[in-house]
Amino acid sequence: MIEAIFFDFDGVIVESVDLKTDAFAKLFEREDENNLKDMVAYHLKNTGVSRYEKFGYIYEKILKRPLDNKEFQALCNRFADIVFDGVLKVPYVEGVIEFLGEYSLLYKCFVVSATPQKELEEIIQKRGIRNLFKAIYGAPKSKSDAVKEILISKNIKPINSLFIGDALSDYNAAMANCVKFVARINNNESLFDGINCLKIKNLVNLKSIVDSFN
To answer: Is it the case that residue 214 has pLDDT exceeding 90?
Structure first.
C-alpha cells in the first residue's frame, strides 16, 4: 500500500518548466548563437538536474573556458533573480493542489527537487503550501540521496512509495531506491521513450493512480 509520495517541483507541482528554460536562455543570451542552442538543448534534456551541475558542464563542455567561484555564484544569483517572481505566479499543474488538499494527511508527501534548498523553501512558503508536505529537499542534495534519506529517516519501505516526476533524474532517483515511478508528460515525451512506466498528462486522477498501485 502506498504510504509516501515524492513530488518533483517544476513541471509536477507548478508549470514552471518553460519559465526556467526561458531564463536559462536569457542568462546566456550574449554567447555565440550555436553555443546558446547547445546550452538550451542540454538544459532541456536535463531538466531535473541542478543548475549547479549545468553551469559546470556548460563551461567545461560547451564554452570550454574556466568557471571560477565568483562567476559561478554570479550565475546562480542571476538565475534565481530571473525566475523567482515568475515561479510564484505560474499556475499549478492541473489536479495537484486538489489532491494535496484532500490527501496530504493520508499520505506522507515530500518535495524532491533540483531547485536550491533555500530558494525552494521560500517559494513553497510564499505560495502558501508548506503545510501540505512533510519535508522539502532541494539542491545540492541529489534526488537519489534525498529519497534514500527520507525512506530511512521516516522508516518507509520503498515498495510503499511512489515518485512523480517529469525528468530522467526523477526516474533514476526512484529506480535507485526501488520506488515506483509515474512520469508527468508535457512536451517531454522523448525523455521517456523506451522507459516502461505509467505516463500521465496531469494529476487530475492521481488518487485513482495511487490506488492502482495498492
So the answer is: no
Q: DSSP code of 167?
A: S
Please list, in sequence order, all residues whose beta carbon lies within 8 angstroms of the beta carbon of residue 214, skipping any fewer than 6 positions away: 1, 2
Determine contact, residues 185/201, Cβ cutoff 8 Å. yes
Taking the whole predicted model, whether its pTM rises above 0.85 is answered as yes
| Grid cell digits, residue 104 | 496530504
CATH number for the domain formed by residue range(s) 4-15+92-212: 3.40.50.1000
| Secondary element (H or E) of residue 36 | helix 33-45
Tell me if residue 85 falls in helix, strand or coil: helix
Reference 154, options 39, 4, 1, 2; nearest CA is: 4
List pLDDT tens digits, range 67-82: 999 999 999 999 999 9
